[in-house]
Design a protein that fits this description.
With 258 residues, the protein is an alpha/beta fold. It has helices at residues 31-41, 58-68, 83-96, 116-122, 146-163, 179-182, 197-207, 231-250, and strands at residues 18-24, 46-51, 72-76, 101-105, 128-132, 139-141, 175-178, 212-216, 218-220. The strands form two sheets. A seven-stranded mixed sheet has the order 3-2-1-4-7-5-8, with helices on both faces. The protein starts with 17 loop residues before the first strand and ends in an 8-residue tail after the last helix.
């Protein structure tokens, strides 16, 4: 099924203001309850599913939801193209269709929808609101093994060191962005296709003058299925951050001083 334009987004009003996107790959068991939970928590939000040809039938569930619920849309891509490219596609969709706020979250319930209102409330004063595990009140529920904790801590440390970020949770993807600020970013600048996108997009948001804040969330283990994050993605993230950091230090970026 091709994507359907959100007709309500053409006219002003609360229903046109917020887009929540879910990048999916093999989330057939999680998708329906997650979309229903999002709509229950934030009834005015639209939901965009971007599925990378999941072999488990995730796109079929998404198609059913587009028929059953107003304001739910689907983009199907022909293969697995990476989390970063999916989020860029969703950001461009938010820009093209006149949304005010764009919320990104994982599709496996590790980001509970009950925290979306806090993200949106924080947008009154900033351009990017991060759902953070690493500020007071935030944390991780359930099992969070040493390897994952080590990767997360290391990546966040390098993001602050190399990219000049001051926020604490730079690797998590549960965030809200002001769409008018996203318009200022040339997406051709972005080097990341996978999970390293999460650090890189904050770097470019900072480059175009975004302000940031963090609100505490509790990160939960996925309810069903398996994690796609591995040590290879961590290595890619560090490599891309190193390259950006070097170019930043040498003044070789396409924007002003970052």
């Amino acid at each position: 099924m091709s994507e359907s334009p959100p007709t309500a987004a053409r006219s002003p009003g609360p229903a046109s203001r917020v887009l929540v996107s879910l990048a999916t790959y093999n989330e057939v068991e999680n998708l329906r309850p997650l979309v229903l939970s999002i709509r229950e928590t934030v009834p005015e939000a639209h939901v965009l599913v971007i599925d990378d040809a999941s072999p488990d039938g995730t796109a079929g569930v998404a198609e059913e939801l587009t028929r059953e619920l107003d304001g739910v849309f689907l983009i199907q891509r022909p293969g697995k193209q990476g989390l970063g490219t999916a989020v860029v596609r969703a950001m461009q969709y938010a820009i093209d269709n006149g949304y005010d706020y764009y919320v990104n979250m994982d599709a496996d319930f590790s980001h509970p929808p009950r925290f979306i209102p806090a993200l949106l409330a924080g947008m009154a004063g900033v351009d990017v609101m991060i759902g953070s595990r690493y500020v007071p009140g935030g944390g991780v529920e359930g099992e969070f093994g040493f390897r994952r904790k080590f990767m997360s801590t290391g990546i966040n440390m390098y993001a602050r060191l190399l990219l000049g970020l001051r926020t604490r949770d730079n690797s998590g993807s549960f965030r809200c962005y002001r769409v008018s600020k996203l318009r200022r970013i040339d997406f051709s600048w972005i080097r990341s296709k996978g999970y390293s996108f999460m650090e890189e997009i904050l770097f470019w948001c900072r480059a175009v003058g975004c302000t940031f804040d963090e609100t505490p969330i509790l990160f939960e283990n996925r309810r069903r299925g398996y994690s796609k994050l591995d040590s290879g993605e961590a290595v890619k993230a560090l490599t891309i951050m190193l390259g950006l950091g070097v170019d930043r230090a040498l003044g070789r970026l396409p924007v002003g001083k970052v």
